[in-house]
From TrEMBL:
Pfam families: Polysacc_synt. This is O-antigen/teichoic acid export membrane protein. The chain crosses the membrane at residues 21-46, 58-77, 98-120, 132-154, 166-184, 190-210, 231-249, 269-295, 307-328, 348-368, 380-399, 405-424. Its main location: membrane. It is a multi-pass membrane protein. GO terms for cellular component: plasma membrane. PANTHER family: O-ANTIGEN TRANSPORTER-RELATED, PST FAMILY PREDICTED COLANIC ACID TRANSPORTER. It is found in: Cell membrane. The lineage of its organism: Bacteria, Pseudomonadati, Pseudomonadota, Alphaproteobacteria, Hyphomicrobiales. Keywords: Cell membrane, Membrane, Transmembrane, Transmembrane helix.
Amino acid sequence: MRPIRTLISQSADLRRFSFGFVWSVLGTVAVRLTPMITTILISHWFGIEAVGKFGVTYGTLVSASMLAATGVSLMATRNVAAYATTDPETAGRLAGMALILVAATSALLGLVIFCLADDIANRLLRQPQLGFYLGVIAPIIVVSALNSVQTAILSGLQEFRAIARLNIIMGALMIAAVPAGLYLHGLTGAFIALGCAYLAGCFITMPTMMRALKAHGVPLAFRGALSQWRMITRYAIPALLASILYEPVNWICTTIVVNKPDGLEQVGLYFIAMQLETLLLFAPQIVVQVLIPMLSTGFGEGNRRRVLNILAMSIGTNLVIAIGFVSVMMLFGDWFLLVFKLDPARDWPVFVIVVFASAMIACALPLGQVPVSSGHMWTGLTITAGWAATFIIGTWLLQDQGAKGIVIARVIAWGLQTLVYTGFTRFAILRTGCSNSQEKA
């Protein structure tokens, strides 16, 4: 049996996937740990109701930022990866268009949330005290979304080492600043510190992105960028609509529950449960970040074998991660709850559901990138619409069960979506052309 090093050296895709995954993991750990550390501190210093306030406000920030950036980011990653080598000028215009679009959409969305903060808090959330916090996070939406698209461009260039270094710096800033802000000025200080960290991230990422574009021979261009409008209709618009369906769903579901008498406590419990999901999914989501540009190249070449190999690597990696995490949580799950000052006897059923749901989501994530990478964005939009409708309807029907109702509805929605993604993946692979020379490669 040949050594693993020999196998890696003989497979460009495996080597690129392995190195990209390792570097991305190193860079993402600190960034993903920040909300969890903040949640732990809030639960100890201020109690579960304060966790609910943080969860709703932070969820609004994340949903709005991803709504502004996700569609543009997917377009940037996919098309910069596809054109960087074959047509650098087009890749440069697409990168410029991505930055213009995210600046405009995030600024508009941030302005809307700032102007309507009190109305959202009073009429939708029925929690008037959240209006001030919504106003605080409104400007952060712009820098958060811009930073996401900058990173997406680097991902399209497969600059995973640079992304890792930037994420390590960003994570260090967040871990140092957010708890300090929380200690000095409560939730307001935590959000201000978070915004400062994202702003610093934008200033640090921009020169790195420019150097990477130059190194790949891709000239960033803003003039004529909007001439690539076909990419907007083919990728950005369906991805934006998918974001509209996908990203605010958690926010909508928590809004349904927060209106109950013990709503803030139930949302706080759900938010803590989502920190557990984040802990499991951070590595599988990194696999997806590495996967998208590689899978896009495979579909672009019509190389069926390459697509199958990349999917097998990613699903296999996520399956191993999921099995390991489930095993650890079954043994030490009570400790996790005690860290957040929760009662294991009362709250463990919610977390059992989340653990197994997260394992299922981890294995399904690579399949979810097939519509994007194969160019079937509108099909992906339709699948996402089905997931969103199932999740919201399920939460509405189970709202009296609080946090448990949300996680059950989430499991049902993801289970159905996984079945659909499996069927579509088979369809997309069968339609992928593969020449004899490619089969022999």
